Request: fold
Amino acid sequence: MNNRSSSIAKSFILYAGLPMVLVLCLLIGLLVSNKFSDFQQGKAELEAQLNGLVLEMSEFPGDRINEIEAIRGEHLRNLNQDFLLEVTFALAILMIGIAIPVIASKYIASMVEQNLNLLGDRFSSGGSQGSSLLPQMFNFAEFKGVADKMRDALYERAEEEQRWKNAEKELVGMNNDLLNNAQELSQGGKVAFSMMEDAEMAKRELEEVNQRLSHVIEEARASAQEADIANSAKSEFLATISHEIRTPLNGVIGFIDMLAETKLDEEQLDYVDTARSSSNTLMALISDVLDFSKIESGLINLEVRTFNLVTMLREVVSLFFNDATQKGIVIDIEIGQEVSRSIAGDETRIRQILTNLLGNAVKFTSQGEIRIIVICDSVPDASGKYSIEFEIRDTGIGIDSQQLRKLFRPFSQGDSSTTRKYGGTGLGLVICKRLAEAMRGKVWATSRVGKGSSFFARIPVEVVEQGENLMPGSMPLKQPRVTDPQSQATSRQKLGDEIPLKIAIAEDNLANQRLLVMMLRSLGWQAECHENGAELIEYLKDNDCDLIFMDLQMPEMGGMEATALIREGAAGDAVKDVKIVALTANALSSDEASCLKGGMDAYLSKPLKIALLKQRILDLFSPSEVSAMQD
Reply:
């Protein structure tokens, strides 16, 4: 470069490039200073933030702290790299800013010198070649492109820095979220651990409750077994006490009946009647208690069979005919036209209910009448049964509403004065109610004080025959024929002559032996007595027999076992088919059905009545049958 070009270049550098360089240095200095301040501030903020995180996460394990320290180092390196990059970029700009004015000055000086030379040549040549040299002149538009590129580069750098800052903020936010999540997880872990402890405690409590419940169940089962054992023991006790009470009472009632048939004066007959009434009352009380105990123990069995309703009603009324006649009470039976004579049901239980209700009506009625009204539903129920309703209507003392509510409770009567005046256990109506409910029926009552009472029993039965029914109205009742003792003795003696029988008795109670022998003797028969079934079988091996009266409870061998052995031929084939009549005072454990099922031919319950004894013998034997046997 010649001196003129160097001088022009120095001038451009001095007057244009140097100010530009100074301005550029100032700008670069300010930029570097700002960047350094930002670097220091960002470093301080990062240190403060990370230190705060370290303090908040002091309860976390050491590996988490190390992770924070690693994040700290990485952020510091990023900040240092960014600062160094920015400083390097500023220095590069500074160097470019210094080099460009120098180069530009030299280039401009060269262009100016060239243009000066061209201008000089034009002036010297008269400008003939000046127009051809004009396109070679310097084009300042190139600086605009360079400036645009630099501006774009700086804009992109600013955007990149902004993106870095946004990324940094997002990273810090994500770290904060991570720390919050970690805290929430830690808190949730504590809650979960607490819940696990509560669940474990609840499990232990549940196991304890289950153990206590199992223990309670076992105790309940043991209590139920004890209750069953106690119930069985009670039933056995009642069966035993029944036999023990009714056996001597049989002798008392039997001998009173025998005494009443002897020659007695009026005073003696009054004593005998009083003793007979007292003994019958005692027997009724015992029967009520035993029947109630039997029902409470669930030992009641229903036996459905066909029977004649009218006949049954006549027999029930006949039991109270004498008592009603003595009081001057009229007993009428009214049966609806729709009621069938032949029905199927438990005759024994229905008879027991009606007997109890009618007995109460007679007991509590001193004058007037008693009506037995029987009606029947016209439409059967779902099971095909018809409900027959029995109403026992009297004109007795009546019952007020308060007493009526407790009438069907056990051991309860209308009031204490009634109990003292009329006596009784208060079990009769309860037994009626339980028996009716056992047959899917019901019993209830209505009453007015001083006007009388009506007791209702509604029992479902099967209609066997829709035969001729009785028209509504009163059924005449025949009064039992009363004969004098002499005529009765004559008829009994004739009965023994007409039906000669060889009779054996198996009875362990001497009083009952003597009573039965005397009753049979009054009817014209002789009998051999034995104390148990074993003695009876030994006797039958060598002697003929037509009729056996067999007590059920005897020492060594009871009546059921002896009957079974006789039927099997243990006493010989000749007596395998001998007639056997059961004798029992046990109203709880033995009944007619079990005796008949065990091979016996008939059943007699103590206390014995001579009329019933005679009837049982007539049922088993008749003069024509005896003649055929003898032939």
Observations:
- The domain at 487-630 is CATH 3.40.50.2300 (Rossmann fold).
- The two ends are 185 Å apart (CA to CA).
- The chain is about 65% helix and 10% strand.
